Amino acid sequence: MDKKIDKIKEEIKCYHMKTYDDLETFRIKFLGKKKGVLTILFQELKKISLHKRKIFGKIINDLKKEVQKKIFNYKNDITNEKIIKYDPTIPGKSIKIGSIHPLSIIQNRMIDIFIKIGFTYVDGTEIEDDWHNFTALNIPIYHPSRDMQDTFFLQKNPDILLRTHTSSVQIRYMKKHRPPFRVLSIGKVYRNETISSHSNFMFHQAEGFYIDKKVSFSDLKQTIHYLITSFFGKARIRFRPSYFPFTEPSAEVDIYYNSGWLEIMGCGMIDPKVLKNVDIDSEIYSGFAFGLGIERLSLIIYNIKDIRMYFDNDVRFLRQFKSEF
Questions:
Q1: What CATH number does the domain containing 147 carry?
Q2: Are 12 and 63 in contact (CB under 8 A)?
Q3: pTM beyond 0.85, yes or no
Q4: What span, in angstroms and rounded, lies between the C-alpha atoms of 282 and 262?
Q5: Would you state the pLDDT for residue 195?
Q6: Same structural domain for residues 111 and 59?
Q7: Number of domains present in the structure of the chain
Q8: Cα–Cα dist 297/109, whole Å
Q9: Is the peptide bond before 249 cis (omega within 30 degrees of 0)?
Q10: Comparing C-alpha atoms, which of 285, 286, 290 is closest to residue 268?
């Protein structure tokens, strides 16, 4: 063991390090928990007599302290050398500043608009069951309105699907809370639309609803007017009678844009059957709901010509946008 220790002493003394990687290699070689040179020596002490064990044990401990001291000194030397070599006159690395996606800008703006008038923003799951997505919204199994939405089903019996609208959030919220409440929800919805202004399978929808005593269509019109003027300033708006299974009466909302009327959203008074499905008394409470696509709104505001540009991940397109609101 004497010769082995002398050889290790010489190796420790002559070992040179220039980088942090060299330091780590040196540490592992001599102090590693499993195969470190000094670790193995400590294990071999068990095989010699007690008298020799005390002598060599002290020697190995001294070697360990020497290794630790060398690591400490070299670490300081390497650090100081790096500091000395640093030239503060060298230009730093430029940091590229990102931009917010136009859909995120519109979404954040919409949340801000509705929070100002007492709405609460809530999120919801994108994977839904049939009851929350259809049946509770007065769209039973054989209802013809289901043909309006080509649905992505993940499972049958029970039916599990990708939600086709954010109205499912409305059902889940009303089941857990009692009126009055004003709620806004925004998120992805999924429909298989091969001929559509959407992205063929997914778009972002905003859903808002308000339930209280004596809520009227007049309240709905005032809220829609507030939303549109918040985005566009003074604008011509019209309401057209329409049909949705979960609202009655229902309306489409158009704005006058580029010398013509453009449909922008749907809305209506929540059907009493929907309130009944979530155990809200329609004799006491009434409410309205509205829904619109974020992509459509962003197209108009930013004058984007092709909706597919949202999903191309072209950095040149995304760099154009800043949160102006």
A1: 3.30.930.10
A2: yes
A3: no
A4: 33
A5: 47
A6: no
A7: 2
A8: 12
A9: yes
A10: 290
